[in-house]
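Please check both lines for our workbook:

___
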Amino acid sequence: MSGHGHHDHGNHAHHGHHGADEDHEHDRGLSYDLPVLARRRMIRLLAGASLVPLAACTTDDAPTSSSATAGTSSSASSSSSSSSSAECATIPDETAGPYPADGSNGVNVLKESGVVRSDIRSSFGNSAGGTAEGVPLTVTLTVVDAASGCGTPKTGAAVYLWHCDRAGDYSLYTEGVTDENYLRGVQETDDKGQVTFTSIFPGCYKGRWPHIHFEVYGSLADATAATSTTNTSQLAFPKDVCDTVYATDGYGDSVGNLAELSLDTDMIFRDGYDHQLAATEGSADKGYTATLTVPV
């Protein structure tokens, strides 16, 4: 991670690579994330214990045949948003992390005019006006009603999406980009329950698997008022795609960081990521598309 040491200050649970001082900051970040995480997961586990027999959502946990296993693996590479038993569970609840900019930890970008947008590569409003560079990425989330078996799109809901830049830095928080608000935006779901964002592929910073954060709101009005979040989760990327992207210019630090990680050991995804691993297609030259069904 050479060349980005100055970004550590005031950025707990982020880079943490300058010895004891940053290790302390990193520990503070974990303590920030984990209590909320543990509490949400316990609630989810308790709720799931009573719902699983009714929802029949266990194909990814206990395949009963080779076809079930094949169905699970093929869904990871398909961009289809069709409902299947493996997609009936509500999207796992995850921490928003230390850099949400939704008013829960310092700055609130959701109340800024211009935050409702599909192209989130550039900063807006009274920011410094910078643009995040990197391999192009189009993200499409399909928000569906879990209670109806994931077959009913959630029209008129809203999604707030944010992620780090290719250096692993978060706008509004990381030293050097605190005056930027790029890679953050809100969209209202259409009649298919979909939102689409034009962005760049996020980098991999020390200690976390490459990911995108998102919050689901009941309406666009709720989102822009920063109230009544219904779901908070994270999207993960396949390793082969990350390897390809990080071999390109500008992602140098991500190569070493990714080498120290796996989906199975990541603090967020290690308890299961089948419902959060985006179907990702494309190339480093032309860009990628990432799609995920989000049952709420």
Residues 1-87 have pLDDT under 50 and may be disordered. The helical segments are 20-55, 66-77, 220-224, 239-246, 252-259. The longest strand covers residues 136-145.
